[in-house]
What does this fold into?
Amino acid sequence: MKKRPKLGQNFLTDARAAQRIAAALGDVAGRTVVEIGPGHGAITGELAARADRLVAVELDGELAAELRARFDPARVEIVEQDVLRFDFAAAAGAAGGRLCVAGNLPYSITSPILLKLAANHAAIELAVLMVQREVAERVTARPGSRDYGLLTATMAMYGETEPLFTLPPEAFSPPPKVHSTVFRWRFAPRFAGLKVEEEAFLIFLRKVFAQKRKTLANNLRAAGIEPQAVAMAIERAGIEAQARAETLSVEKLAALWREIASPQGAEAPLIMG
It folds into this structure.
């Protein structure tokens, strides 16, 4: 296992960990599972034994060929493609229902993959993913903690995340310089329940988390909203005047967005583009 793909993936060699990842998806008999970055197939074999059908998305041509030679094409489809271009909606349509997703995500494109999954939430029910430990700490952080930020809040709007277990560098070949954590993400978008518009609220999150050291009010003013309007919206949302975005739950952030999007007594929304 000397080959290292262009994306710098480290191959899982811990058989017990592969079993735990597959088991974390729950009962997938009769279901279609999509695996991201199967590599040499350590997790692939476990998933194939449990799922009705497995779609393994591998960018590296040599690894894809290795996987095709190893697995029955009637049960395991190897898609040689960048996962950022993979059509999850089409895969869900072919499966006749929402997908389960698993994978050891390449460190270099972890965040883009997570955002890709979020954008395809309608096609995905559950994901069990392995990422760098520091990324998992951000993904699963709680408001007020050091790691809570834009990625945390964005992913929380698409469903609950929970850390499962952490693996040392020795569980991989070649060993990375960091630990890796597996987490589970249950997709259940919250936009309708919190009465916010998806695209506009995601823009809002990017604005309020733009400068982590700045207060919420300062970030909103920097986004082009008048100081008096900012102060009134924050007060009506029941938020402390000097609060920072990193201290607020998505429920509180949604309350603030509603005040800004539909301000009391204003003729037009104050929300920025």
The CA atoms of residues 22 and 47 lie 6 Å apart. The two ends are 48 Å apart (CA to CA).
